[in-house]
Amino acid sequence: MGRIEDSFARAKAQGRGAFIAYLTMGFPSEERSVEAAGDLISQGADIIELGVPFSDPFADGATIRAAAYEALRRGTSLAGVLRMAARLRAAHPDTGLVLFSYANPLYSMGLDAFARAAADAGIDAALAVDVPLEERGELLAALRPHGIGYIPLVAPDTPPARIAASVEGLENSFAYAITVKGITGERAALPPDLARRLDAIRAASRLPVAAGFGISTKAQAEEVCRHADGFIAGSALVKCLAEGRRPCLR
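Given the sequence above, the corresponding structure tokens read:
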């Protein structure tokens, strides 16, 4: 088993959902984002999603968008995020590390070069927000020889057959279930039909299911984990850093 699989298995054995924490790397600075990741691990985060700042983060809300722009202004690049990943891997050998990116930075580096560098940095899996199921073959072909998993996104209206196709053949991974229609960001309440949809996704997926987008409180995380194997929090944590606070869920 890989670190992603181990993280979900360990959380399940402890009777809880896995905690996956997203950070925009390089925000508010390279050093602070690495420190924040370590802080979240000390708080119990099982997996860290290392967000690669991108100039057109169309799936992200205002908080992460602003963080990405500031990280880019400071010169953060994909290569820089991988250097940060290597630091985290050295300090936290058992924590799952997922590289969260849009396609452009990966293709700009070159998929083979990216996969080699990601493996060297200790990345366990990658997620490319804007690469659809039908077009991911080239990326998977680059990642697999290096033992790097791939995280598929499952939209709120994805039918069961497409969910099954999205997770087919993937290892050391999880299905990322998007909780809401729209962009990332904190929500006062999650959709009333979310429990039913998460149950349906779990029934169609051979991989663990983690729910993300809009989860900003411990209560929401607990609610989600009654119907999923884990939860993903991002905007709420990035907002803490933007306000000069320790990243945590309220």
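The radius of gyration is 16 Å. Try to locate this feature in the token string yourself.
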